[in-house]
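Exercise 7b. Backbone tokens:
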């Protein structure tokens, strides 16, 4: 067994032991009160591969366009290009209602050649891909995490962040099994040394380096499913103990990273159970929801999926800076046309000068919005299905 596999074997063994200890502690504690509505308690972390949020594009020339645009019962996004509007279907084929997407994540991307952002429907993939190199490798850095000011972080405020990336079921790749790349982070959302809410610039890390020992995420076929979830909660008694089982060294004072590369869904369910036992009784508040979204990471993957049909709109992503935003903030973020301040690790309106920001009179329009910023690298590759670690 090589060093990389041994490291993740030991992490998994520690995970199983942690779950056992957590469940034993919960078994000895008083049973939690049932939900007020008498229903089942919602699992905070629950990965359902069928819960893919799919876009439905309605062009402005469509006879249905005006009716869809005026339907306030539907969650919808007007494309920045002005071509039309996009509504969404959940994994069961039902329409996503307005308000149900309040905590659902969406990704905006900073343009490389202009100080502006674009939505993921506007992006033409920079990674070409081909039948000879159909696959994509991906690296992720957390470039900053901003907690809304009106959420009033205090010394007891913690957060648990989880990213899951996997090959989409719609991928043209039929060679590789679907596996899941899981990054989990423990966040201290209050900086006790500074006696204030944590600065976004202190919430940075090379996620794939820390989580997977430098191994990139592998997406056969270049068509990816992505899930992003953040839960704010109080500091549960076992929180630090559990994270200390995994970390070999602190990432920062405020950030701890745990990763599980290329795991089966059954293992992901075990991780979910651990996280739910950790934070489920610690006054949790969902900041980002975990509905799955599908993205093309290469032109080849996008073309293979769309097959030339103009009526199909697909979200794509490029290497560079991604902004994870919540549905409830999406329109306001677009309206304020942000750029990313790489020093402060915050969004600022493109129209605001450094002098205005330093004047003392600057009112941050993004202060009461929660968002995360990622820096992402990609490369087109041909993965080898015969390759085995340690062989």
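Sequence design result:
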């Amino acid at each position: 067994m090589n060093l990389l596999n041994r490291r993740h074997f030991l992490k998994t063994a520690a995970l199983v032991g942690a779950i056992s200890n957590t469940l034993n502690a919960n078994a000895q504690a008083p049973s939690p009160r049932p939900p007020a509505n008498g229903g089942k308690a919602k699992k905070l972390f629950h990965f359902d591969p069928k819960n893919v949020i799919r876009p439905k594009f309605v062009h402005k020339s469509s006879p249905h366009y005006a009716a869809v645009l005026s339907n306030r019962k539907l969650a919808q996004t007007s494309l920045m290009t002005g071509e039309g509007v996009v509504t969404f279907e959940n994994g069961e084929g039902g329409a996503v209602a307005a308000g149900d997407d309040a905590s659902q994540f969406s990704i905006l991307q900073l343009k490389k050649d202009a100080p502006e952002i674009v939505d993921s429907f506007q992006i033409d993939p920079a990674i070409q891909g081909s039948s000879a190199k159909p696959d994509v490798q991906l690296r992720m850095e957390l470039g900053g995490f901003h907690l809304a000011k009106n959420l009033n972080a205090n010394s007891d405020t913690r957060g648990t962040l989880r990213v899951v990336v996997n090959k989409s079921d719609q991928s043209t790749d039929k060679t590789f099994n679907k596996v899941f790349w899981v990054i989990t982070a423990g966040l201290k959302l209050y900086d006790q040394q500074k006696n204030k809410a944590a600065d976004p610039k202190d919430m940075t890390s090379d996620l794939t380096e820390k989580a997977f020992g430098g191994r990139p995420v592998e997406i056969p076929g270049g068509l990816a499913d992505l899930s992003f979830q953040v839960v704010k909660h109080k500091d549960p008694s076992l929180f630090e103990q559990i994270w200390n089982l995994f970390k070999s060294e602190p990432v920062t004072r405020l950030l701890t990273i745990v990763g599980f590369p290329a795991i089966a869904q059954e293992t992901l369910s075990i991780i979910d159970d651990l996280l739910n036992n950790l934070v489920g009784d610690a006054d949790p508040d969902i900041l980002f929801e975990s509905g799955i979204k599908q993205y093309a990471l290469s032109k080849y993957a996008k073309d293979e999926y769309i097959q030339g049909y103009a009526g199909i709109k697909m979200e794509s992503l490029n290497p560079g800076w991604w902004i994870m935003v919540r549905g409830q903030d999406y329109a306001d973020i677009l309206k304020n046309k942000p750029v990313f301040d790489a020093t402060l690790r915050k969004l600022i309106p493109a129209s605001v000068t450094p002098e205005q920001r330093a004047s003392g009179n600057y009112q941050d329009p993004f202060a009461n919005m929660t968002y995360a910023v990622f820096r992402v690298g990609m490369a087109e590759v041909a993965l080898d299905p015969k390759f085995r670690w340690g062989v």
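Instructor comment: Residues 3-30+41-381 form one domain. The first strand starts at residue 52 and ends at 59.
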